[in-house]
Amino acid sequence: MVEENVKPLNDFSFGQEVLESDIPVIVDFWAPWCMPCRIVSPIVEELTNKYEGRVKFCKLNVDADGPNTARQYRITGIPTLLIFKNGRIADQIIGAAPKENIAARLDKVLGVSQT
Asked: Choosing from 9, 37, 44, 81, which is the catalytic residue?
């Protein structure tokens, strides 16, 4: 599956794309062999439409592209979604979460009130 709206990261691009971003960033820490990651991946892609221009969506393959970053953020289980705001972790979701749960966490970081 091609994910057009989710930017792939690596250890070298992480700082500029995530920590220096002007808008919140959600990073999907994943690996191709991880079955729960395959469940979360299309959910993350689907959410890009709802949050276009308000949240940057990225993914980091913990084995091939970002082992140092994964170690730095103590990623011990995947999938892990880290939501960054102003260069700091604002929230995290570990495991395969439903779309509504991820959206609610993004809304909270964005300061969107729940009705």
From this structure: 37
Extents of the domains making up the chain: 7-109
Q: How far apart are CA 43 and CA 50, in angstroms?
A: 11
Amino acid in the structure at residue 25: V
Exactly one of 18, 34, 40, 102 is catalytic; name it.
34
Q: Please say if 37 is a catalytic residue.
A: yes
**Does the annotation count 34 as an active-site position?**
yes
What is this structure's pTM?
0.92
How far apart CA 115 and CA 106 sit, in angstroms, is 15
Q: Which CATH number fits domain 7-109: 3.90.980.10, 3.10.580.10, 3.40.30.10, 3.90.70.10?
A: 3.40.30.10
What are the tens digits of pLDDT across the range 8-64?
999 999 999 999 999 999 999 999 999 999 999 999 999 999 999 999 999 999 999
